[in-house]
DNA sequence: GTCCTGGGTTCTGTATACAGAATGTCGATG
DNA sequence: CATCGACATTCTGTATACAGAACCCAGGAC
């Protein structure tokens, strides 16, 4: 295993993280020399990192202005969810058909006890989101489809970015956990159609919650390059 | 508009074309120096091209051996179709809801008269596949979702590669055109669910045809680096 | 006052040089 | 005859240098 990570990988992961965590705001211009000196790598690996970020859709080539961090409006969140509906429904359906029942039965137990996780003093909800990530991994493993997994991976990156828009309220997290529980139960029971429907329900509720918060918290964008 | 294309773009498109057209067979090793000298560009833009091909899934980093053209087995075709089912169903549904009816009515007329196209002496079926490509474009425009369009674009690239596996027989093309006609009619009539179902039918038949041909023509892979 | 033009600066795109790692081969030894 | 090791060759990854294009600002002309 490569102990020494490549410089292009480091630059990619760091930039990706900064974009996802909103340290680099949408619209920020990513000059090559500026970023390469800041990250301590030369321009060649930095360009490779930027190319990967473009392929992920996190960075856009704004004509003339160079590369900028992709905007994330409510409209683009709707677009992401339209793709998510399609891919996650299919993933849940296929996982129900092919998955290792034991794995999902174990997850079932953990999601049933999720309120314990949420009661802990954990502002970032690491334990909860860790559990969700393990569900994602289990679904990927069950589906065993490289193309689907790759598409979902890109979507999930964008979704972390959405998640950081505002803090989740405990009530929503508890409801989301119940929705996840139903999905896991359906997969464990090998009920493909129920798994698909439960996924649709979950995504519908998740989107509703985002839209509600977008109304309550209408202001989030603050361009990096603003007034002097 | 840039009259002079970038060297990395030229390298990307040429390699992509060669892979899709099976001039570069699956498993072919793509050495950087070898390809850069062959394509007449330096290693830097070539690496950029290879990075994009990796993001597309046309090239895989085989541990140690360097970069190779991604394998395309029947199993991976099944995987592609599982993603296709999800994305194209959603695309057809959304296009039916949002599309410009006039555009799809025009396509309806053309798909109804597709037998005229197929009767021409056109071994590559350029006219027919051109029409299908215009349908794809119309759906993309109607859906108006950058994430969905990007995911579909990658899938379509892989599908062209599948298409080149064997020559389509006229009977299948005629049947496929009828299936497309139903999809277009459903979109033009703004019947989202029928459009979704018709898409599923079309994909089912297309996959069946591929599986049938895979049995009839079992041998297609011939490694580039074989016996001396 | 507005528009055009010229120069300077900065940026991207490409080529090349260099270092480290990996692989394959040849020879030697058990 | 097989296996292990050392060396040579090749390849990837990174840095840097160079050229062309784009942009910005200032100055002048209408």
List keywords for this structure.
homodimer, 228 residues, mainly alpha, two-stranded antiparallel sheet, 10 helices, 2 strands, 70% helix, globular, disordered C terminus, DNA-binding
Please, could you describe this protein's structure?
The structure is a homodimer of 228-residue chains. Chain A has 228 residues and is mainly alpha-helical. In chain A, 70% of the residues lie in helices and 4% in strands. The first copy, chain A, has ten helices and two strands. Chain A has helices at 7-20, 32-39, 43-56, 74-98, 101-112, 114-119, 126-143, 146-163, 170-188, 192-216; strands at residues 59-62, 66-69. A two-stranded antiparallel ribbon of chain A has the order 1-2. The longest helix of chain A has 25 residues, at 74-98. Chain A starts with 6 loop residues before the first helix and ends in a 12-residue tail after the last helix. The interface between A and B is medium-sized, with 26 and 26 residues. Chain A binds a DNA duplex (30 and 30 nucleotides) through helix 3.
Rg from alpha-carbon coordinates of chain A? 19 Å
Span between termini of chain A: 47 Å
Spatially, the strands of the biggest sheet of chain A line up as 1-2
- Name the largest protein-protein interface in this structure: A-B, 26 and 26 residues
